[in-house]
Amino acid sequence: MKNHVFRPLIVVIGIVLLILAARFVYVPKDFGSYERGYIYSWHRQGDENFWNKFTIKYQGKEYCKDCHEKNFTSINKSPHRIIICENCHGPAIDHPSEARSKLVIDKSREQCYRCHVKLPYPDTARGRIKGFLDPEQHNPGMECVTCHDPHDPKLGGA
Amino acid sequence: MLTRRNFLKYSLAGAAGLAVPATIKASTGTAPAAGTATDKRWVFLVDSTKCVGCGMCVKACKNENEVPYDANVSRTWVERYVVTKDGKVHADSPKAARDGFTTQTIDQGHHGKEIIKPADISKAFFVPKLCNHCENPACVQVCPVGATYQTKEGVVLVDRTWCIGCGYCIMACPYGVRFFHPVYHTAEKCTFCVHRLHAGLKPACVEACPFGARQIGNRNDPNDPVTKTILNNKVQVLKEEYGTKPQVYYLGLSMEVK
Amino acid sequence: MVHGEIWTMKELFTYPNEYIYWSVQIVMYPFMTGLVAGAFVLSSLYHVFGIKELKDIARFALVFSFALLFAAPMPIMLHLQHPFRGINVMMTPHFTSAIAAFGIVFFTYGAIVASELWFLYRKHFVDKALALREKQDKSFVEQLWYLLYGTLTLGSYDVSDEALHRDEKAIKVLAGIGIPVACFLHGYAGFIFGSVKANALWMTPLMPVIFIMSAIVSGIALCMLTYIVVMEIRKFMMKRSRKTWQQSLEEVKGAEMHVVKMTAKYLVLFLVLAITLEFLDLIFRGYTAVKSWDVLRSVIYERDFYDIFIMQYGIGNLVPLLLFLVPGLTIRRTILGVLLVLFGVFMMRWNVVIGGQAFSLTFAGYMHYLLPIVPHDWETAKEGLVGAVGIFVMPFVLFWFIAKVFPVFGETNKAH
């Protein structure tokens, strides 16, 4: 009974041991410091796989070549060749398949405004793209595609 | 591996741990992360003179990385700067420029819209922004649980199963690239599209940019065109003063850029 | 809806991902930890430095500090997007983060306070346990109490003078260790902010010290307030009942006033220190005027002028300072004074946490925080007025329960 002074300490040590035991069970085995040391890479290594295996959605332009040859070749002859198809049609993941037999066809004027609303900024690439300061002046209320083929904008024209 | 011994070591390092970063920084310097020469170190190059502000990169990033399309947050965004003849800087990035810049009015948030007469403009430019995947990421340093980390290829990632959602990393990032994912409620940020890099593809934003304003490269490869550009040209980084050593390099950056 | 969007009003040029991510609960967090640390330091002033005048309030402050200790992590829990993962801070601590120290410091501090309480109340536990052990046919409730007190003795029933003497020594030692730990507990809360280099308002090495000073101020103020309230209730009870008490009403009144006056002196001392440091920081920023100063100045002197200079420094610091310094202190004036001091410290936390997010990382835009008053979902409840008030009330409720096991008054004279 003499050393009762140390009893709280024993309780504290007990709790610490409990926490350490809990850690052993709770913390994934691949948790640790990796290449960048404790400061910059203290983590669960398995998570790197999660990100490495993340689903790829954008397939790239070459992917469309074989099936949509017409659009592919025509766009490549036009100034729009720099724009990948998926920018206008959305990610082609699962296309073509039952889930996504067709891709989005966005005929909205806004789609074209992104580049063709002229912004009066001197010496910028944007200022040099052909377009209109006020797009509502250029055939308002009509879809651009009625007159322009986005895959071959130069040839189109009313 | 995490052993008890390790744990004790770290626990003892407790107070000291807070002081450690400075010393490590010094030893790492600007040299590539520890590893062999075959290791990659991804870096990004933005040519802000080529950007037209179409926002295709933002659209692609959101689609590719499952960031809710209509949420007002984004892993990457484009800023517009309009400098008027009186020297004033007017800047905005409405909806992170997801739909591009389609009007001349500047979005000043609650302050309203600002209309600038074309005659008053002295210069203007667009600046794409994304995570800088810093050599000394302040966000990683402050994560209390080890839920965000840097891989050996220099990419800073977030572990969605381990993040507690305290927001400290969001506060610590001087570039404002982090936010809470509206679905997972964990810290969210650009990954340089590592999943694409590992498949030999370019990041979605790089792929989507029609004007070649965005490029990715391997800094450890001296023949990489991006590495060459960085070494041979006048490049800049953002907010150098924070000592984070950002790894997104800019060509043609103007001093007005925040 | 993105977290933070609902209560953030953005103005001029801000980055798209910027919102007020650290809302009212992060204001409550240092406020509550500050109260814990302050209450503990107050109790230690008596135990360690033997400042006799504080004897009465010391024991009370310690128990209260214990109650506050449980309430302190609650704001964080309400703030976290994944509260159930909060345990990760203990499981995989990343000590280069100031928040990771929380687990260790908080635990150490809790252990010290609990141990100190144990030594202080050991005799009480033994007495109770023995009394209940004697008693035949205990009711179910008494059984439970017996179990509780039996456990609380930790198996040590030695209450000889020698043993009690050793208890007192242990208390002294623990209180001694406790002061730096309490300061560390709160200093680190300041460090959480002070070390964020991305935030121009937060980043200053003075932040931890400023936090400690205002913590002590608020802790003392809250202890005084609660002490006065409890004493008033006692006086009220004495007047009502005809039972004979150990002390006369006059004696209690005199003792109360004495304690209050003594404590008020320490309050004023720490308050002056806190204000001095804050102004040092402000002057230094204005004088050095680095890149961020333009936007900081516009926040401090224009946008948040009312919150900072009127609410915090004026009503929260200057007025109470005058109230305490004008001679002839009365209980009523003290109550007003400490309430204002508490308010002032809260405003200081507010101006640091919310003020630090009032300007954008671009230094060219602002964000305004609209505190959700009426909750319409879980998020606006927990990170709104409701959550904040809930957190503030919590320690008092806890205190009520804890005081059942650790009687604060009543047996004061018998035990020591």
Silhouette of chain C: globular
Largest β sheet strand count, sense and barrel closure of chain B: 4 strands, mixed
What is the mean predicted local confidence, pLDDT of chain C?
Answer: 88
What gyration radius of chain C follows from the Cα positions, in whole Å?
23 Å
Number of contiguous helices of chain B: 7
- What is the beta-strand fraction of chain B? 15-25%
Helical content of chain B stands at: 10-25%
- Class from secondary-structure proportions of chain C: mainly alpha
Spatial strand order of the main sheet of chain B: 11-1-13-12
Fraction of residues in H or I helices of chain C: over 70%
Secondary-structure content class of chain B: alpha+beta
Spatial order of the strands forming the largest sheet of chain C: 1-2
CATH architecture of the domain at 29-46 and 131-251 in chain B: 2-Layer Sandwich
Q: Tally the helices of chain C: what do you get?
A: 15
Mean pLDDT of chain B: 87
The run of helices and strands of chain B is HEHEEEEEHEEHEEHHEHEE
Largest sheet of chain C: 2 strands, antiparallel
Ends distance of chain B: 41 Å
